[in-house]
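Batch job 17 of 40 flagged for manual review because the log was empty.
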Amino acid sequence: MQKIYHLLKSHIQEDAHAAYYGIVLLFLGISIALNYGLGFNSYLWELAYEQHSYWAIGVSFLFYALPFFFCVGLYSYFYKDTSFWYKEEFWVKVVVLLLIRALVTGSWFHTLPLQDYAKGSSDYFWLFRTLMVGRVYIYDGLGLMLLYFLYEKEKSHFWGLTFQGFDWKPYAYLLAIMAVGVCIACFMGNAFVGYYPIMKPSRIESMTVVNPQLGFWLFEGFYASFYLWTEVFFRGLMVIGFTRLLGRHAILPMVAVYVFLHFQKPMGETIGAIIAGYVLGVLAFRTRSIMGGVLVHAGVSFMMEIFPILWGFVKWFK
């Protein structure tokens, strides 16, 4: 834990600009309040999955462009750095990363195989949730590999996907702290236990496409591996991949986009994403490895799936 503390302390001492950090935090606070007050994410969901509108992809592109360019523009202003605006690499990477997020959020093509299943059925629910996870493998996987082979000259590892220089112990302590937070969320928040687990056992009891118990664990394993791509995208591409363009200042734009990604989740988790995104971003930048983030993210996601179920058993026994 001391290693994480010293890395964070060193980074903040070198990087912190009170006005820059303060305005970004204010922007994120206002954005979170507006999202949960106006239900913007519900609008995006309806546009994509109810109306099957191509506008959902365009709106999602602009949705993620807003936090990214807000932070990058502020950085350029406060640090008097405009050099990256004139580089082709910057614009290609930005367009592709925004397109990936727009397709993941606003496209519905991955749900086309569900036309033969009745909405509300156990089979539909399981397949829909599984395909929602699978879309990331397609959009993130193809986009990230394209950018990697276009711009990374030294292909020794895939944007921090390496155990070189990786020390698991600090991340184990971090995971233990997160476990306490998940337990508190289960105890205090109806919103949390209402949202998780994503694959609710009660919704797949009558499933026929696969055995319900097997289907639950197949999904959970698939869901945990999904966070490998999340870390490659946010801490890999958006931090390590933008280092030579923005240096250590790539972290705050990543955090802002990462927070917007959480807008469909409980508000407490979205607020927590500010801290988690920043910490994992700093660690990825300093260690040049995202394996710690993969460990923490997959571990926390598994706990958020399992702990609410266990909490339900505790309440039942009471």
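Reviewer: the log was empty due to a logging misconfiguration, but the result itself is present. The longest helix spans residues 122-151. Unflagging and moving on to job 18.
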